[in-house]
Amino acid sequence: MAKAPVIAVVGSASMDLTCYADVLPQAGQTLYGNLFTTGFGGKGANQAVMAALAGANVYMVGSVGNDLFGKSLQENFRNQNINSEFVKVSELPTGVAHIWVDAQGQNRILIVPGANHGFDENHAASAITAIPDLSIVIGQCEIPQSVTIAAFTVAKKRGAITILNPAPYQELSDDLLAVTDWLIPNEIEFEEFVGEAPTSETLARFRTGKNSIVTLGDKGAVLISPDGTLTSIATTSVQAIDSTGAGDCFIGSFSYSLASGSDAKSAAEFACRIAAVSVTRKGAQSSYPTTAEISTLS
């Protein structure tokens, strides 16, 4: 049996506070919602959980508060078989995400980082140095870029692949791009980078010098080579209920497949199948297919 690939996720861990409503309120308006839930989230933690469910040996590098939310997140890492020895306990409160989801499954999210900004470059670099047999390091933009740069710099020296999910959108430093192998924004983040919605013309102009993937929701995804060659990846047609965490689901499953030896197109196709399942269920991590379900989608 092949040895599970080792993936480290350097990023955020938060509690998701989610409200579902048919219509989301406008400024100054009060409406009734249909359901309120709490769940485990944070883009980094979501990606770690998905990679672990897919079959990777996953290490989480991050920070949580010394509070009830933080203790719950740590317990969840243990339950998901994620190594959390490099998750620091901060004096800052655990991060939270306030999420609104409408009847079409579209979401609006407000993040309060808290302890996600409670660890530094030295912590991240030391963790990436210490993790054995490392294949891939994943980062996002819910922690300071300087921390991701430190982690990716060590990863590159070790010969690991680095994957950056530039979400939520922010301008990326040249130093971060220099140590990034894969750049994977969604269609909203792509529009922030380019100034236009993704089309065949604008996608071909997305020349970062990196391998890129733009995820397009129900339209699948597009692989973009460093020279601008486009490869479309179809997805399964489903009735979406909640898109929260779907992008993280894609990142985690793509990373596992790539680290397991799949080519980029096959890995993206696998990730699209997994993400399509997630949008048919409520929540982020709670929507991800189980390991048994994933085996039927491979």
List the helices and strands and how they pair.
Blueprint: E1 6-10, E2 14-20, E3 35-41, H1 43-54, E4 57-65, H2 68-79, E5 83-90, E6 95-101, E7 107-112, H3 121-130, E8 134-140, H4 145-157, E9 161-165, H5 174-178, E10 182-183, H6 187-194, H7 200-204, E11 211-215, E12 221-224, E13 230-233, H8 246-259, H9 264-278, H10 291-297
Parallel strand pairs: 1-4, 1-8, 2-6, 4-5, 8-9, 9-10, 10-11
Antiparallel strand pairs: 2-3, 6-7, 11-12, 12-13
What is this structure, in a nutshell?
With about 300 residues, the chain is of the alpha/beta class.
Keywords:
298 residues, alpha/beta, 9-stranded mixed β-sheet, 4-stranded mixed β-sheet, 10 helices
